[in-house]
Please model this.
Amino acid sequence: MAIAQEPPTSFPQAGNVAGVSQEEWATQFAAQSGAATRLGPFESVHVFWLAGMSCDGCSIAVVGATMPSVESLLTGSLPGVPIVYLHHTALQIEAGEAYMEPFRKATRGELGAPYVVVYEGSIADESKAMALGGYWSAIGEEEDPARPGEARQVPSAVWLKRMAPGAAAVVAIGTCATWGGIPAAYGNPTASMSVQDYLGRDYRSTLGVPVVNVPGCSPVGDNFTETVAALLLFLQGIGPLPEFDDLGRPAWLFSETVHRSCTRAGYYEEGSFAKEYGDRECLVEVGCWGPVVNCNITSRGAINHIGGCMNVGGPCIGCTMPGFPDRFSPFYKAPPGTFVSGTASKLVGSFVRPLRRITQRYGNREVAWDRTGLVTSGWGAPKGPTFLDRLVHVAYDRMRRSDTRAKHI
Ligand code: SF4
Model:
């Protein structure tokens, strides 16, 4: 039932990470590993959630996920997806050694089921803390080899190092784990780094997959649960290997920019920009980096398709990007490129906006009102079409009706 074989030492990289197509990868994977014996179906899969330098925001985001929800993963109610046994420091009922035992079994290869390691937060240089007699982030205790009979805390990073080689997948959740994030910002004293920095570029899970990255500060919870569900379907042998981009992000979730799905993109196109927070227009001049940031929060929302930065008035500060935060700070200042693109939009918008208002006024009237001269709305008196409106629309209607495409509709 478990992934029993030793992983081949030279799996090809997954997805398009090294320019290898899904099909090529699957063919090579099957040839090298005998994939049929390595994939499911499995009744259950363990997910070990390790926490490093984090604020727990990723955990909060994930427990709010709805598509799919954590509950549906834990109860095995998603068709084809095995039951997930989640080992999470904040959500677990067990404590002490009862909590730690599955971790130890996993490192000894005695779990009896495949497992996925999820890492939240960045990884600090524990030797700096040890030099001061402490630790940055740890889970559980064990005997200190340097002082027999005495216990020591086991850093989360040590668990990661022990468990990653036997994991079906290692998933870094949140920007701290994917790229280092805030704890790794310029000037930090902890030498914090991301999971892939820590495990190295040659790391591969037992399925031959490098570290999977689901960034965001905090990430969209659904992005994470959907990625895990996709990985589990692959592990079951009934789903394709999810496609990842060159940065190990789920390609279908991070291929578009924030800007392309933003509810304010129409304002940008018409050159209408917010001057202060709370304004309804595009936020680029108050510091939005959305046109260059890969993220789906504007289309997916924060929780249950509701909320999300720009949707509720917050400019994008690039939190999903590897360069965050140093390359996007100081926050809430217009990005330098805004001058060129914003000026172009304003110029175009100054022509387009008045033309659209003409058509809007015209389309906002019942045909009968203009034919009879009687406006039946009791809600006021919609302005009648001006002479210019009529002139424009005589020409406009002619053009519309002479359009060859329109004749076929
Ligand atoms: Fe683009 Fe940001 Fe403006 Fe939205 S608010 S349209 S993401 S620049």
About this structure: The two ends are 58 Å apart (CA to CA). Residues 1-19 have pLDDT under 50 and may be disordered.
